[in-house]
Amino acid sequence: MATLPGRRPIRGKIRPPSKKAATESLFDTSWPELASAMTTIQQQKANTLSFEEVYRLGYNMVIHKYGEKLYLGIQDLIEKHLKTEAEAKIVPVLSIADASPAEGVELLKAIQRVWMHHITCMKMIKDILVHLDKNYVPQTRLPTIYDMGLYIFRDSIIRSSTHPIQAHLQLVLLNQITQERKGDVIDRGAVKASTDMLLEMKENNGTDAVYTADFELLFVETSREFYRLESEDLVRRFDPPDYMKKVENRLDEEKLRCNHYLTAKTEPKIRLIVEQEMIAKHLKTIMEMENWGLKQLLINHRLEDLDRMYRLFSRVPDGAKELQNGVAAYINDCGKASNAGVKASTQESQEKGAVPGVTVALRWVQEVLDLKDKFDKVLALSFAKDKSFETAINAAFERFINLNIKAPEFMSLFIDNKLKKEFKGKSDDEVDTILNKMTTLFRFLSDKDVFERYYKQHLSTRLLLGKSVSDEVERGMITKLKIECGYQFTSKLEGMFTDMRLLPDTMSSFKDFLDNAIEQPPFDLHTTVLTSTFWPIASTPIPCHFPQNFLTAIKVFERFYTSRHNGRKLSWHPTMGNVDLRATFDSKKHELNVSTMAAVVLLIFNNIPAGESVSYTAIREETKLPDEHLKRTLQSVACGKFKILVKEPKSREIEDTDQFTFNAGFSEKLTRIKIQTIASKVETVAELKDTKEKVDDARNHMAEAAIVRVMKNRKQLDHNNLVAEVVAQLQVRFNPSLTMIKRRIEALIEREYLERAPGDRKLYNYMA
Amino acid sequence: MAQATESEYVTLESSDGFQFVIHREAAMLSGTVKNMLSSSGQFTETTEGIIHFRDIKAVILEKVCQYWYYKARYLNSVTEIPHFDIEPEYALETLMAADFLDIFILVHEKLRV
């Protein structure tokens, strides 16, 4: 430090010890002055004071180590002041609050006035004694002057040990809130000021507001009691929709209350109370109420009320679950009703001896679709597309759909019906919506392979008889199925389409062939060549003795076909084709379009002298057709709308002893007549059994294939894992039973595809 | 009541009777002055706009005022900041005044005694 020597004495002058002597009496002289200044401030006469003067007093006391004395002095001063304030301004009001709850606001206001004044004073005192806060307080870990002021207020006014101020304050606040809940208008400002005050004051740790201990706990408890009583009363008096509206209002009110004059921190607590008391405790009651419970809401499609129910129930634990169960139960009931309807009409028609009509199937599917539509709407508009609700609803549908063992057949019939008739003239969009809905239902089916079988059957009829409304729609449906179940599922269906596509080609080459051929078929021959594995046809055709000119035509075609495709074998199925016959009756000539089998039968009568009858057995002898087919064919030409043959005796059923005569007197306005064989309908019991056998067969096949696929991959695997993997593979198509898989494994061991590992019987080895 | 708060200036009076009229903003750099002028209590300082420092001599108060302006001038400045010189014989008293006035004069790096 570069200083001039001459300046040193000046520094010596300002040595601290010179002041020490003066400090002995500093506190005694300064304190009364400072104390009276504080009192002046508390009397709201601060404008007569000089800040500098008071500040200097405090400052000097602190730098002369009188911090502790000063702090305690101030504390004592404030405490005394507040006690007199309480006695003068608050205690007299207490009796008013006692006298009438409505006047309670006066108490709030009185406390408020003292509080506001105290706050102002404390701010000034804090400013003046800033040095105390900065230099003394940090060493001692005492609260700052301002905080100390708030603590004193808390302890000597709110929690005063001499006056019951706290109890009164709480009572008044709770009364005010209860009054507002009952619909009265209250002085929100006064309540808000009080809660703000309680929030401002902290517990000794400096973070928790006095509000929590002195008010919130009590508030929550009394609210619980209030809502317990109210909900019991309301549930008794109102329908669920009205009750739910009231609950919703209450929830809104409490939320607003917290925003307006309590604190946001109370909101979740009070919300929980309302939810517990008004919703959780009455879940079952609300749902199962006779009048306008869940069931009635669903039946009457009260979307808004359902939405409210969803929103309220979702608030409480298990509420959503309960509601889902309720909804699922309702769906189950509806589904059971539909299923029962099917059963009833099936039984009815069986009693009459008739086959249950297609209408039953259509009605069932339509009912299911309508139900699904309804719940799609409910889900979207009332349940906010909640995923868990979607799952619950879908599970319910799945359950009851699969309870109807005829579900796969019905669905296929429904689509068949649509594709044959109802899609005519419909727009692409309409068609697409219906198909999409069907795809959704299809997704619910567990026996998808059974559906495939029926679909194939129905599709083949549509294709062969050219009954489908549009090829494009057919393909669209196949594509949808493909998306659902994969390529494997639809490959055969697509193969059917390929066969149909190749048809015109084959026929035009056949024509070219005929142009150069020596031998011509005796009539116009139109052949549909099908790949036998794609189509639902027996591998061996039913026996049928064709007339001579049929055989000639067949020979010509076979020659043509083998010349183009070497090594392919053609088998002729009379069940699927149709023939145009020109028949001469007494009155006029008719052109008859009949099935191939019917043609074979009718052609017999060409060789019979007019008027003579032929017995059933003779026809059977001639055609070699099996009884079941022959009877159906004869029924269509002799018992149907157009009676080409006359049966003796007359009845609906064909007996072995019947006699048939050509009905020469047949007359009809139209020249061209189409005689249909009995169309596709719901299967008879025998057919159902047959289908079931076929399905089981196919399933066994699939299961074995899956087992081999897995084992080929793994080489060695234990039983449980093998079963698990196989089930996973098969589940897309149907629900395999464990015994079935076990049996398949045994069968494969027998055929030496697998072996049990030596030593460990639970382990299988793959044998290459 | 004459509201001094509206004035741009404030008068500071030393113990030996000298008056310094300086910008209110500059004087507010002192925490103590700031409290005096902005406290809710309407003390005499607030109403009259004069602050009487009974413990600070004019020489020191002048130095303090200089420092306020120096600080206000170079606060947030990007240019080179010159040194602020304090004569050694006033150093201790200036520091005591700074403590009283609640100014962080000590930590200023450009301070040169």
Automatic annotation (TrEMBL), chain A:
Q: Does the keyword Ubl conjugation apply?
A: yes
Cell membrane recorded as keyword: no
Q: Which GO terms describe its cellular component?
A: cullin-RING ubiquitin ligase complex; cytoplasm
Outline the segment boundaries, as ranges, of region: Disordered.
1-21
Regions of compositional bias (Basic residues) in chain numbering = 8-18
Cullin family profile domain segment(s): 406-638
The cross-references to PROSITE patterns, in alphabetical order and at most eight, read: CULLIN_1, CULLIN_2
Query: GO terms for molecular function, please?
Result: ubiquitin protein ligase binding
Picking any one GO biological process from the record gives: apoptotic process
Q: Name one Pfam family in it.
A: Cullin_AB
Q: Which SUPFAM superfamilies match?
A: Cullin homology domain, Cullin repeat-like, Winged helix' DNA-binding domain
Which InterPro entries does this one have?
A: Cullin, Cullin-like_AB, Cullin_CS, Cullin_homology, Cullin_homology_sf, Cullin_N, Cullin_neddylation_domain, Cullin_repeat-like_dom_sf
* Keyword vocabulary terms for this entry: Isopeptide bond, Ubl conjugation
List the PANTHER family: CULLIN
* Entry similarity comment: Belongs to the cullin family.
**What's this protein's name?**
Cullin-3
Species per Swiss-Prot/TrEMBL record: Podila minutissima
Protein encoded by which gene? CUL3
UniProtKB/TrEMBL annotation, chain B:
Q: Name one GO biological process term.
A: ubiquitin-dependent protein catabolic process
The entry's cellular-component GO terms read: nucleus
Please verify whether the record's keywords include Amino-acid biosynthesis.
no
Pfam families from the xrefs?
Skp1_POZ
Q: Which SUPFAM superfamilies match?
A: POZ domain (SSF54695)
Give every SKP1 component POZ domain span: 9-71
Localization recorded for this chain is: Nucleus
Keyword entries, A-Z: Nucleus
* Membership in a protein family: Belongs to the SKP1 family.
**What name has this protein been given in UniProt?**
Elongin-C
